[in-house]
TrEMBL record:
Domain GGDEF: 325-458
Record protein name field: Diguanylate cyclase (GGDEF)-like protein/PAS domain S-box-containing protein
PROSITE patterns (alphabetical): GGDEF, PAC, PAS
Species for this entry: Variovorax ginsengisoli
Residues covered by the PAC domain: 84-132
CDD domains: GGDEF (cd01949), PAS (cd00130)
Domain PAS: 11-81
Amino acid sequence: MTDLSKLAPNGQEFLSEVIERMVDAICVVDLDGRFIFVSAAARRIFGYEPEEMTGRQMIDFVCPEDRERTLAAARDVIAGQSQAHFENRYVRKDGTLVHIMWSAQWWESGTMRVGVARDVTERKRAESMQAALYAVSEAAHTAADLSDLFARAHEIIAGLLPASNFFVALYDRRSGLLSFPYYVDAYHAPPAPRALDSGTLSSEVIRTGKRLLLRSDAQAPLPTRVKVDMGTNSLDWLGVPLDGQGGPIGVLAVQSYTGDVRYTEQDADLLQFVSVQVASAIERKQMEERLRHIAWHDPLTDLPNRSLLHGHLQSSLVHARREGRHLSVLYLDLDTFKQVNDMLGHGIGDLLLQEAALRMKKCVGSADMVGRIGGDEFLILLDGDTSATGAVDTAELIRSILNQPFQLEGHRVRVSSSIGVARYPEHGADYKQLIRCADDAMYTAKKTGGNRVCVCANALHDTAQRAA
Ligand SMILES: Nc1nc2c(ncn2[C@@H]2O[C@H](COP(=O)(O)OP(=O)(O)OP(=O)(O)O)[C@@H](O)[C@H]2O)c(=O)[nH]1
């Protein structure tokens, strides 16, 4: 061991001076868990004067979430297992968190723990930001859809800053509307979509393309354009723009209603940092959803196309079979539609198909599906009302609604329709059989003059055939 008296005449003074100048803090804790000595570096690391800490329980300074494992680590040290890299978080005097890495050892004869605390907050911050970026980019690939992506982004952001009140606002440039597809809040329900000029804090972030941090204690006036907002009755409001490739596509926002959560510029930096990755993940998911929509929908009417209808019918049949339920299929073909094209042009024919699609959708429930098979042929799956009369009633309703004249660019156009009805399990056991039966019934309706509903005539009597 070095002889201190050779370095300085008074070894004690020399040691005190060295300890005073150390960047890391030396902390000594007795068997009862009280600080009995804390060196000067505590001032910078914990924000307390050393004398404010001595005599007090060490555990009271530890972040509540980390207390249990800190006590377990302390027990290990007392049992003789020294710790070289134990990490936990302390609450500084100003309320902020500091990440500490401890090296600690038990001093048997003194019955006390001797530890050295190193402030690793910056390193932890860099690590968690890196991890957050990685997690967001992973979520961009693996999230099932946009809402799953939002929930996962929320979880990731909550690991970086307090985010119990968090929302995602999306801005649709074409409609000019700001919507709130993900909204978690202690007091408010998700707001309805609103125009960008409705004077909200979120729209201010979109308009300016800049983050906005409002702290209740700063008493800063609201931006002049802001009139009302669901955030105005929160104490602190922090929103950052989601910058897409062609400008802001939305906002990520956190807000607090309680004084123990305050947002700082540092939080704004963190949220902004993550928002870049979140924005690109959202754009990626939006693109995937657009492509999926295009693949499954008819471009003219935006109705489900043949592939989606067949897939939906197959899975509905699986459920119906399992639950012993009925379901119905309507096959609809417009009568003499060709004449509309021939007399008024293809453009008016297109408008008629679009308007007819809207009318049909209004006749069915949310569990049902109206799709376009092609040309002037539509398929309607009735999964909601499973009664035999319900299917015919719905078919009659559709027929009569399509009979009403259409006003299309100044032309008054009248059409009628022929509809075939087939029911599971009476008329078919699988989707192909059901569609064929409904098509046959539609053909019968057409052959007998059109503008009518016909139910499939070929009921399956053989139970073995039904169950096939
Ligand atoms: N405007 C328009 N017409 C289409 C479209 N797709 C198919 N058609 C036309 O729709 C018509 C469908 O033919 P049909 O069902 O045989 O004609 P129809 O006059 O309804 O005859 P019936 O069904 O026997 O009453 C054809 O003239 C197609 O050219 C489309 O997307 N837009």
